[in-house]
Amino acid sequence: MTALSVNINKIALIRNSRGRNYPDVNYFAERFLQLGASGITLHPRPDQRHARYQDVVELKALCDRYQQPLNVEGYPTPDFLAVVKQNRPAQCTLVPDDPQQVTSDHGWDLRQHAEFLQQICQELTPLGIEVSLFVDYDNADIALAKEIGAARVELYTEPYAEAFGTADEEAVWQQFARAAQLAQQAGLGVNAGHDLNLQNLPRFVQIPNILEVSIGHALIVECLEQGIEATMQAYRQILQSK
Ligand SMILES: CC(=O)[C@@H](O)[C@H](O)COP(=O)(O)O
Ligand SMILES: NCC(=O)COP(=O)(O)O
Question: Which residues are annotated as site, described as Transition state stabilizer (predicted)?
Answer without folding.
Answer: 154
